[in-house]
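Hey, quick one: can you model this chain's 3D structure?
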Amino acid sequence: MEAAAGTPVAVAVAAEPSGGRPVERFSPLGIPRRTPGHIWLITAVFTFLLASWSVLVPQYHAPDEPNQVDAVMRLVQGYGWPRPGDAVVTPDGVGAIRASPFGSRSSPYELTVAPVPAHDAPPRSQRPAWRDLAVPEQPAGYIQQMVQHPPLYYLVEAAILKALPDSGDARRWDVTIGLLRMVSVLMVAPLPLLAHAAARRLCSRPVAATVAALVPCAVPQLVHIGSSVNNDNLLIGLGGLVTVAVAHVLRGDTSTRTACWIGLLTGLALLTKFFAVVLVPMAAAAYACARLRGARSRWPSAVLCGGLMIAAGGWWWLVNILRWHTVQPSTPGFPPGEYAGRDWGVYWSWMSERLATRWWGSIGWYEADLPPALVIIASGLLGGLAGWGLLRARDRARRTDLLFMLWPTTGLLVIIGGQAAAHLARTGHMTGVSGRYLFTGFAGVAVLAGAGAAALGPRLARWLPLAVLAAAAGIQLDAAWLVLGHFWRPAGGGPVAALRAMAAWSPWPAAGIAIVFGSALALAALTAVRLARNTQATEPTTPATERGRHHSHPHGA
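Sure thing. Here's the predicted structure for all 557 residues.
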């Protein structure tokens, strides 16, 4: 294991398929055992950051969250998973929109663009249970488009909700949404562990794995989506696990056990959302690459991997083709998006500027955007690190490994861009361009950033973990200030009034909110101290030492 952010780790080198040494095999349960203490601290910071954002952003002010919650609750209430076009939002789901801070008291079913008033929040004791939300005078439910997706995310959320005390739809509506948000938090929380694990397999310098673990903390949009009710969250976690497993395959792990894990995890991802399809060719290409490099041939393992992908989730899409004659059926009556009049200049603007903003931070229903200058700087730094890592890879094999980490994001860009272009050509409207759709490949992007940090040279690289943590703290504080101002601060009010409004609408007591926020800050400070100590304890590696290490361990990245 690695003891410090800049100290080499013996186990990663010993595991390489060189000189007859055994190959380290992938196991999800083995990831925590190989994780050092400071990475656990980073993961704790990320987890409490997610929990803080689950309160910071008003309920139902996240992309598609009203429909996402209703899709879970229709399973809780036994309504099943009908064909697309046959489902509308349930009466209780419509009532939840009225009761929530989605709209104003005068227009409860229209998205509000003003700060949410504290005085509109009913006392917690007067908030009804989910099953009591419907009222006779409310409008009929609108189209429920979530049934076009596979149901795994919603089944997991529903099963956990029913397993808790006071199960099902008997809890207060706001507590129900709050609990569903926390289940999503748990799905995304391991991302620093996964980024660290993948980088540790592909990069010989531990600083790369440390920086990779820190990158998730630096993207407010990832934290926002990860703390809301959204099926992308399960896909992010499963995509990260597949990325770690592929990194093991690239380093020679073609065992049957690893093939089974990749098949199962990819299949579950396919049972979550169509975008998981990018993981299938990634896994297949990794096995082909491992074979070309001389890894022991295990074609039966690769075939088993593919069979498990189909059995665990790929069957859903095959059934769609047989039943609906399309991979994913469209939802009749769903809004077509923003009118662009087939202006392809608008298309390229969406696919560049708007997509970058929505990747870094476009909070709510794309209501509050991070400043363009901040998005440009952050994109330049992250892109620069990733590009530098690719350019400075020692040989073609190491560069290929890093390109595999970019595979999911690149594939998703192609899918998103292709779907948006086809929709624009057909309807004249733009839709479906969202940064969160790229987060399935986030672990791989973090690995590239870590590789770039390690390639800066030992004297500079050893300070990078602390610098990335500081940058993450800065961008998160800027995003939190933006959210407080847009969603909570009343006209003429200050931060205290904004925090009071947030606490008034929260499903949790003010003391609990203070504990979560305080824990996030305290853990961030403790992590900074730990990284600073690691930096001070690490002597910069001399060029001669570097040449000797590279000569001794030719498989390091």
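One thing worth noting: The mean pLDDT is 90.
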